[in-house]
Specification:
heterodimer; A: 116 residues; 11 strands; 0% helix; B: six-stranded mixed sheet; five-stranded antiparallel sheet; 54% strand; globular
């Protein structure tokens, strides 16, 4: 069974450019999470979806960040315009909510983003 | 909301020794506690989890213990091997967290051959 798939694995771009990160969750999972990881802040939850609907976006740092989930098998995280402080590793994770929750999240291998 | 603290931040052990990582949580309603291992260049991978209706769970060389009264849980790795070197994260989830995980800050474990 394929795990969570993220693309691209690495992205290097110049400040001011638009960046789009992509995620394909595990089939059958109804929750999707976007995280950002840096040395200074650790793992930060940016936003999560349930059944393609955004539930909590309080972790999204600014209006420059937006996320969509047009269907159950695809999500994007977009940064426009990008800034050097956005450099980090971005992870997507998915899980199956189940009747009582308490199910593990499965992570992709991340996108390493560098903004010059 | 939930607050998870993790100690130590770095840990070095000799190969074959045991390693223990400890986490505390603040919300007594939290009832699910997964542990993740993150190797360089990869995403966190689930290695073991425990639910609040049990006090201990074992999987080969890895065990997790939970003390609900004290609100802390620990990861125990016995007979450590160099391939156990990685960053380990604990997390907590419960009915008050909206299916979110609250992660600890991570422990960088180095096993010295």
């Amino acid at each position: 069974d394929a795990g969570v798939i993220q693309s691209p694995r690495h992205e290097v771009t110049e400040m001011g450019q638009e960046v789009t990160l992509r995620c394909k969750p595990i089939s059958g999972h109804d929750y999707l999470f976007w995280y950002r990881q840096t040395m200074m802040r650790g793992l930060e939850l940016l936003i999560y979806f349930n059944n393609n609907v955004p539930i909590d976006d309080s972790g999204m740092p600014e209006d420059r960040f937006s996320a969509k989930m047009p269907n159950a098998s695809f999500s994007t995280l977009k940064i426009q315009p990008s800034e050097p402080r956005d450099s980090a590793v971005y992870f997507c994770a998915s899980s199956f909510g189940g009747a009582s929750g308490n199910q593990p999240q499965h992570f992709g291998d991340g996108t390493r983003l560098s903004i010059l | 909301g939930e607050n998870v603290e993790q100690h130590p931040s770095t840990l070095s052990v000799q190969e074959g020794d045991s390693a223990v990582i400890k986490c505390t949580y603040s919300d007594s309603a939290s009832n699910y506690f997964p542990w993740y291992k993150q190797e360089l260049g990869k995403g966190p991978q689930l290695i073991i989890d425990i639910r609040s209706n049990v006090g201990e769970k074992k999987d080969q060389r890895i065990a997790v213990t939970l003390n609900k009264t004290a609100k802390h849980f620990s990861l125990h790795i016995t007979e450590t091997q160099p391939e156990d070197s990685a960053v380990y994260f604990c997390a907590a989830q419960g009915p008050n967290t909206g299916n979110q995980f609250y992660f600890g800050t991570g422990t960088s474990l180095t096993v010295i051959p």
